[in-house]
Amino acid sequence: MANPAPQPPTPSQSAQQAEGQAAAGEEKIHTASQWQLMWWKFRRHRMAIAGGIFIAIMYFVAALCEFLAPYPLDKRFAKFNAAPPQPIRFVDAEGRFHLRPFVYALREYSDPVTWRLTYQDDTTKMAPIYLFVRRDGYKFWGRWAGNLHLFGVKGEQETLFLLGTDNLGRDLYSRILYGARISLSIGLVGVLISLAIGAVLGGISGYYGGITDTILQRTIELLRSIPTIPLWMALSAALPPGLPPQQTYFGITVILSIIGWTGLARVTRGKVLALREEDFVMAARIGGTSELRIIVRHLLPSFLSHLIVTVTLSIPGMILGETSLSFLGLGLRPPVTSWGVLLQDAQNIVAIAHTPWKLLPALFVIATVFAFNFLGDGLRDAADPYAR
Hints:
By secondary structure, the chain is an alpha+beta fold.
């Protein structure tokens, strides 16, 4: 005897199933932790997810730039000063398809009208591109010697300039990857210093109030009333010009941190003012907990999500600050390489007209700033998971 066909659910059964699923969803929300609620809301923000992925990739690139770059930082090609980018090809000039990507060699060309020396593709010479190439040596993080590159060309006379070269014949793509380490780390380190200063001073200002709050808030208003760029320029000009690269890097980081803590201190003060009369703070006082411990161990963790959002939105300002100072010649200087230092070669209209690829570091700055802003927007929405 054949089994009877399953009957579709009745309207009442469908309604009961929907109510059961809704109840299960509400119970899951009620039993979830604050961090789980934040994550559920954050993952619905697609631009924030994309920004976070891009930032993670950029920091990964900055950490492994020696391996990912086809050439070391200061590798020079004297015959190819200000050479244009070499596009990667799969189809040659005769229309034949190649499974292995390649670039055409460059040859000098004298423009018959302007008499300016430029470069053209030499279609008679192809340079295949290989993965995991061993050629020019480097010091990974300045400590471990190596010569393995993710990709590149094998011949000593062959070249691979994905983004062209600078005036000294150095590969711009490799230098951008190396510059990412400085520009991204200076923003991260500067914000961490600002977080320490702003969180502590803002917590003290909001917790104690009175004359302490007045003095700190007037100091913050004074610092915020000064135009940022001129103040950065003045403080950077105070650095001795002959400082070693490491001390210059540390000095620029401290300068950016000195100016960047005021906004974080304002946020911290407002949150502490709202929480200092809560029951858990009163219980800590009755228990004999010191006031500094109350601020650091009880008040600050209670609005940690808002601090994370503020820090994320502050990093782009740090990156732009370093880029601006280095571009104007008041920040980092060669041999230190950052995106701002690389943009010094694009300071005049002649350089931009003849070698427009020197502006490419600016695209990395813009993309990184946008990614941090998207990530910050997503975190800001997720910090209040109950808001619609």
